[in-house]
Amino acid sequence: MRIGIFGMGYVGVVSAACLVRDGHHVVGVDAVASKVADLAKGHTPVQEPKVAELLAEGHRSSRLVASTQPADGVAQADMVWICVGTPSTYEAGVDLANVTTVATQIGRSMVETNSRPLVVLRSTVLPGTMQTVVTPALEEASGLRAGKDFHAVFHPEFLREATAVEDFDNPPKIVVGERDRGAGDVLLRLYEGCEAPQFRLTLGEAEMVKYCDNLFHALKITFANEAGLIARSAGIDARRVAEVFCADRKLNISPRYLRPGFAYGGSCLPKDLRAILRHATIQAVPVPMLHGILESNKAQIESLVNRVCAYEPKTVGMVGLAFKANTDDMRESPYVEVAKRLIGEGVRLLIYDPAVQVDNLIGANKAMVEKALKHLRKLLVKSLSALDKSDLILINHASVDADQVSRWTGMGIHVVDLADIPGVAADLTEYEGIAW
Ligand SMILES: NC(=O)c1ccc[n+]([C@@H]2O[C@H](COP(=O)([O-])OP(=O)(O)OC[C@H]3O[C@@H](n4cnc5c(N)ncnc54)[C@H](O)[C@@H]3O)[C@@H](O)[C@H]2O)c1
């Protein structure tokens, strides 16, 4: 294939080096003349293992050329990749100047050279950027229509500097965000034979996936560092603790607890987090991220209460009160807190939780719920159909099915799903998920 790559930085140069090695023809375009001059001689403008050799070989084979002229990257190209920088603005936003400049240049060059390559954005951009910035810039500059005259897709890059060639060849996944189904076909042909899982997503989903990855990587590092400081303050070698932590592939290094949903609660997480934070404070160990977890969990509850109250419901039904389904343990259940808050807002509550039997409650569980919800006995209902009188229903536990959800929404009851009930139609009116 013939591929124009705009932006000869770390991402662009590594991509060019690997693509020419794989037999493709690459035109590297950059605004900095000295970089282009280096590339034109087969020299690398960035230091990355293996890149110098691959570029030199590409130069010898004449499959790599470099230019400062956008039209050279677009003429007769099957694809153009945009790999320009998206640095922070001074107020921490994303500076899209390079991306819009290049999109405009590509749009103009498509008309000048009568070429209609697939436009592939690889630079990291916030959700919505392809739809509201890049595609309009391409359309405006070319006078062409995306989806009809040409296609533009988002294809996030996951390589890491210092192992970039290795990562380019063995990506953790291949993600293509498409506005029009099939738009990324040409791009995916490049990855035939590559074992990485492939995901075809909407543009927004693909843009968000990239941020989610980087957020999580930053979070993991900070978590390990803060836990390390606490361990060290207790005279413990944190490396050994981390080893054992990572060996747990069931609960720790796994998809467990990574589904978007609602606040955590129960008899262990809140109390243990509080205990370790107090210990860290006494030891003067700075762990702001761990402190932030408490704040974040409270914010989840606050945000849900506000969301419910915005509908001004007189009666709210709740499916589930205990901290999870099939237990009557209500100690630090976030749903108890939501119930308490809604009562405080003057809402009438109807709660269905078959595992909670007031007469069977004992000990700390009983004491806690008596304090938080004095009249629990009066709030509990015995059947799901008793919730039909609600104006809004919160599904806290996944103990109802999609048919029940559509029965309620069909009755005009607004349903807020915190539990991700399987099989609910995406276009159901009167239905919203906590994070979907
Ligand atoms: N570096 C990484 O490890 C990495 C990994 C994944 C994703 N990304 C993302 O990829 C994008 C590029 O990152 P990078 O590290 O390669 O950036 P970089 O700063 O190394 O390179 C960007 C290149 O774009 C060129 N450029 C800027 N405006 C131009 C224009 N109008 N025309 C032509 N060239 C122009 C610059 O001269 C520079 O050579 C960023 O959005 C980044 O967030 C980077």
List keywords for this structure.
binds nicotinamide-adenine-dinucleotide; eight-stranded mixed beta sheet; Rossmann fold; five-stranded parallel beta sheet; 436 residues; single chain; alpha/beta
- Strand order in the sheet with the most strands: 3-2-1-4-5-6-7-8
* Count of domains: 2
The CA-CA distance between the termini, in Å, is: 39 Å
Can you say what the CATH homologous superfamily of the largest domain is?
NAD(P)-binding Rossmann-like Domain
Query: What share of the residues lie within helices?
Result: 40-55%
Can you write the helix and strand succession as a string? EHEHHEHEHEHEHEHEHHHHEHEHHEHEE
What is the CATH-assigned architecture of the largest domain? Answer: 3-Layer(aba) Sandwich
Q: Tell me which ligands are bound.
A: nicotinamide-adenine-dinucleotide
Count of helix runs = 16
The residue-averaged pLDDT reads: 97
CATH topology of the largest domain: Rossmann fold
**Can you tell me the residue ranges where pLDDT is under 50 for at least 5 consecutive residues?**
none
Biggest sheet record = 8 strands, mixed
Can you characterise this structure?
- The chain is of the alpha/beta class and 436 residues long.
- It is 43% helix and 13% strand.
- Helix 5 (97-112) links the parallel strand 4 (79-82) and strand 5 (118-121).
- The structure holds nicotinamide-adenine-dinucleotide.
